[in-house]
Design a protein that fits this description.
The chain has four helices and twelve strands, in the order E-E-E-E-E-H-E-E-E-E-E-E-H-E-H-H. By secondary structure, it is of the alpha+beta class. The strands form two sheets. A six-stranded antiparallel β-sheet has the order 4-3-6-1-2-5. The model has no long low-confidence stretch (mean pLDDT about 90).
Length: about 220
């Protein structure tokens, strides 16, 4: 479990094929010296498990599913990624609930600079459109952000100078792809309301039609 508060930015060292997956090697930031094998780290929003190895770079297995769902497939040596260690019990909860399970990727459409602040506009794509709400939470490349404006086909997030300087978002340019994780709570609510009803269960639409028919 993570909160979308990035604690380090590091460079990709290598991206090596392993069957249909890959082994991703990332430089080890000073604050990550005591990371142990088996720990979870969010790499640009994707939860990965640290492989056994030396005290040198961090290495991770990346499954075909993760490669298909995220931007990790396109990483090259020298690319920068956001890192966050898993949340400890009792830690401050600075962002929102982030699982590290990416839902989709999307495209940065435009950047509007407002002095030292910036507004980034991203496309809303079918893989996550139903879960975004204005003033709701969203994780983009592992960074916890608030949706400042919601349009039919795009959304805006407002970035403060600290976020621009301390994450990879500050180096993005229009056309860049980013990982998206929507607010986990929305998916649970949808499930409980029957949008994805189990076989034989009454869907929300069926329940609404039944109630309207009864009212008549």
């Amino acid at each position: 479990m993570f909160t979308g508060i990035v604690s380090a930015v590091a460079s990709v060292v290598a991206h090596t094929s392993r069957g249909r997956g890959t082994v991703l090697t990332i430089e080890r930031p000073p604050a990550y010296e005591r990371i142990a094998a088996g720990e979870s780290i969010a790499v640009s929003g994707v939860c990965l498990t640290v492989l056994p190895g030396s005290a040198g770079p961090l290495t991770f297995d990346v499954s075909p599913e993760t490669l298909d769902r995220s931007t990790l497939r396109s990483l090259k040596p020298g690319d920068r990624v956001n890192l966050e260690r898993a949340l400890l019990v009792g830690d401050r909860f600075g962002g929102h609930v982030v699982s590290g399970h990416v839902d989709a990727t999307t495209t940065l459409l435009r950047i509007t600079n407002l002095g030292e602040f910036s507004t980034y506009s991203f496309a809303i794509e079918s893989g996550f459109s139903r879960y975004v709400v204005e003033k709701g939470s969203i994780a983009l490349d592992g960074v916890s952000l608030t949706i400042a404006r919601l349009g039919e086909r795009d959304l805006d997030v407002a970035l403060v100078p600290h976020t621009l300087a301390e994450t990879t978002l500050g180096s993005l340019r229009p056309g860049a792809r980013v990982n998206v994780e929507v607010d986990l709570i929305g998916k649970y609510v949808e499930r409980m309301l029957g949008e994805r009803a189990l076989p034989g269960a009454e869907s929300r639409d069926d329940r609404l039609r039944r109630l309207l028919s009864t009212a008549e």
